[in-house]
């Protein structure tokens, strides 16, 4: 049986780019949720620092996440991120131990 996979991505916007980054990240939500391997795909913004965004994603397995990163809309945003970020994208891959709710 394949393990479910969680990805938590910390995304640090340049202060002057936070609104543009938020718009771009929001545009990924419905597209990503429509992928067959997606369990959930949720965007958060820090209450303490509005330049910090967190993507919380669950996928049926690693191959589904790999396919997600190869989608044209993901390739496009990954090209634009360096201009919008003040720090490198921080990705944490986690094996899901519980059943998805």
3D architecture notes:
The protein is of the alpha+beta class and 101 residues long. It has one domain (5-95): Alpha-Beta Plaits (2-Layer Sandwich), CATH 3.30.70.100. It has helices at 18-33, 62-69, 72-84; strands spanning 5-12, 38-45, 52-59, 90-95. Strands 2-3-1-4 form a four-stranded antiparallel beta sheet. The model has no long low-confidence stretch (mean pLDDT 94).
Structural class: alpha+beta
Radius of gyration: 14 Å
Q: Span from first to last CA?
A: 18 Å
The description of the largest β-sheet is: 4 strands, antiparallel
- Here the CATH topology equals Alpha-Beta Plaits
* H/I helix tally: 3
Q: Architecture, according to CATH?
A: 2-Layer Sandwich
Domain module tally: 1
Residue-averaged pLDDT: 94
Shape: globular
For the structure shown, list the relevant keywords.
3 helices, 101 residues, Alpha-Beta Plaits, alpha+beta, four-stranded antiparallel β-sheet
Task: List the topology elements.
Elements: E1 5-12, H1 18-33, E2 38-45, E3 52-59, H2 62-69, H3 72-84, E4 90-95
Antiparallel strand pairs: 1-3, 1-4, 2-3
In brief, what are we looking at here?
This protein is of the alpha+beta class and 101 residues long. The chain has helices at residues 18-33, 62-69, 72-84; strands at residues 5-12, 38-45, 52-59, 90-95.
């Amino acid at each position: 049986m394949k393990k479910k996979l969680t990805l938590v991505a910390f995304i640090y916007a340049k202060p002057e780019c936070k609104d543009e980054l938020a718009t771009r990240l929001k545009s990924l939500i419905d597209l990503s949720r429509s992928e067959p391997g997606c369990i959930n795909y949720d965007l958060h913004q820090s209450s303490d620092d509005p330049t910090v965004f967190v993507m919380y994603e669950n996928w049926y397995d690693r191959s589904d996440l790999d396919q997600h990163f190869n989608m044209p809309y993901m390739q496009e945003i990954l090209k634009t991120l360096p201009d919008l970020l003040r720090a490198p994208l921080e990705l944490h891959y986690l094996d899901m131990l519980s059943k998805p709710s």
